[in-house]
Amino acid sequence: MRRRARAWTALLTVLAVSATPALTGCTDTGGSRDSAADGPRQERWQPGPGLAWQWQLDGKVDAAAADVPVYDIDGFENDAADVARLHRDGRKVICYINVGAWEDYRPDADAFPRSVLGGPNGWQGERWLDIRRISLLRPIMERRFDMCREKGFDAVEPDLVEGYADDTGFPLTARDQLKYNRMIADIAHERGLAVGLKNDLPQIPHLVDVFDFAVNEQCAQYGECARLTPFIEAGKAVFHVEYTEPTHRFCPESRRLGLSSMRKKWELGTWRRAC
């Protein structure tokens, strides 16, 4: 839902810096990670290709809305009890956090210095962030990911990690974005959380080894789903959603590619139609 209709698809390509939906099991990574500098060591979740999911960012999660093993929900609007309830049902839970734009309705909005706030991003109350200001943004993102960890989430979905391809008000480059995205992945991994790469198709070759899964919007609508195959080939899930394409048009290709695909409404409520 965070991604607007993409009149800028061609721009993403120019800015590139190189060139059956079955339920599958979850596999662990081949080693332990620190969940935090002073916390216990734990295995990081690694979702595999084809894993069914629910994506609800509108309000409190409805744990009965879909009988699937993965839920992706808003990290601020849901509490530890919501996550625990999903865990009791045997589900893994992903924490949605916006890392690329300031949101005036979040409880930590005042923590962002005015100097890092750019132009509006098309969503009410939001402004792009100057991702070059890592020394200012990292502590804020660390606190947000701490919140995800403390609420018991298994993973993070960091949103708006391709601002370099949009009109942010800052002269962001692909190199700036790569540096920032790698930092975001590091913050998650330091806390024992898996982390997904949201959209940002041109940088997949550089980031597939850093991120644990992918989240994509509208790759079928724009004929781009094959660009996500590096994640599938690496044994990592691609959680994919379409908003306007009917399922009969994109599901056959999604099955062939091994994507975890469904159709959702723009508001990302409980309704879903899976492949």
The general outline is globular
Percent range for β-strand residues: 15-25%
Number of strands: 14
What would you call the structural class? alpha/beta
CATH architecture: Alpha-Beta Barrel
Order of helices and strands: HEEEEHEEEEHEHEHEHEHEE
Total domain count: 1
User: How do the strands line up in the largest sheet?
Assistant: 3-4-5-9-10-11-12-13-14
N-end to C-end Cα span: 19 Å
Q: Please, what is the CATH homologous superfamily?
A: Aldolase class I
* Percent helix range: 25-40%
Low-confidence stretches: 1-41
| Major sheet details | 9 strands, mixed
> How many H/I helical runs?
7
CATH class: Alpha Beta
Task: Kindly identify the CATH topology.
Answer: TIM Barrel
Structural Rg: 17 Å
Instruction: Indicate the mean pLDDT.
Output: 89
What does this structure look like?
This protein has seven helices and 14 strands. The protein is an alpha/beta fold and 275 residues long. Helix 3 packs parallel to helix 4 (174-190). The protein is globular and about 45 Å long.
Q: Which helices and strands occur, and which strands form pairs?
A:
Layout: H1 9-14, E1 27-34, E2 41-46, E3 53-56, E4 70-74, H2 80-88, E5 92-98, E6 101-103, E7 117-120, E8 126-129, H3 134-150, E9 155-159, H4 174-190, E10 194-198, H5 204-207, E11 213-217, H6 229-233, E12 238-242, H7 247-257, E13 260-263, E14 273-274
Parallel strand pairs: 3-4, 4-5, 5-9, 9-10, 10-11, 11-12, 12-13
Antiparallel strand pairs: 1-2, 6-8, 7-8, 13-14
Helix pairs in contact: 3-4
